């Protein structure tokens, strides 16, 4: 099982990820609220701004403080961006 670091040492199973999206659009904000109401929202931002929303095949939604491009790059095994591109201090 391949695990992906979504920030601050938190990991998700790569095989269970359906989508990695930005939280900016109204439909994604509605999805987040619906999942929060169902009790299936996992906030892995550690109080930071949400930059990526990870949608899982179980119906869970995970909020991450790192950019969607960074999470996707970790999923595909590409190297990290030179400029850091994330909001964490690891």
Structural notes for this entry:
Helix content is 24%, strand content 30%. By secondary structure, it is of the alpha+beta class. The strands form 2 sheets. It has a 4-stranded mixed β-sheet with strand order 3-5-6-4. It has helices at 26-38, 68-76; strands spanning 3-7, 10-13, 17-21, 41-44, 52-56, 61-64. It is globular, with a radius of gyration of 12 Å. The model is unreliable at 86-90 (pLDDT under 50).
Report the sheet with the most strands, covering strand number, pairing sense and barrel closure. 4 strands, mixed
Individual helix count: 2
**3D shape:** globular
The ordered string of helix (H) and strand (E) elements is: EEEHEEEH
- In spatial order, strands of the major sheet run 3-5-6-4
Number of strands: 6
- Oligomer state of the chains in this structure: single chain
Share of helix, binned = 10-25%
Q: What is the mean pLDDT?
A: 90
Uncertain spans: 86-90
**Percent range for β-strand residues:** 25-35%
Q: What structural class do helix, strand and pairing data support? A: alpha+beta
Query: Whole-Å distance between the termini?
Result: 23 Å
- Radius of gyration, Cα only, in angstroms? 12 Å
Task: Provide a concise account of the structure shown.
With 90 residues, this protein is of the alpha+beta class.
Keywords:
90 residues, alpha+beta, two-stranded antiparallel ribbon, 2 helices, 30% strand
List the helices and strands and how they pair.
Blueprint: E1 3-7, E2 10-13, E3 17-21, H1 26-38, E4 41-44, E5 52-56, E6 61-64, H2 68-76
Parallel strand pairs: 4-6
Antiparallel strand pairs: 1-2, 3-5, 5-6
């Amino acid at each position: 099982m391949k695990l992906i670091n979504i920030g601050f040492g938190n990991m998700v199973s790569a095989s269970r990820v359906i989508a990695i999206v930005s939280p900016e659009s109204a439909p994604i904000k509605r999805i987040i609220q619906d999942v929060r109401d169902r009790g299936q929202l996992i906030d892995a931002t550690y109080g930071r701004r949400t930059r990526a929303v990870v949608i899982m095949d179980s119906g869970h939604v995970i909020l991450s403080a790192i950019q969607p491009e960074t999470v996707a790059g970790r999923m595909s095994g590409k190297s990290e961006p030179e400029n850091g591109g994330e909001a964490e201090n690891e």
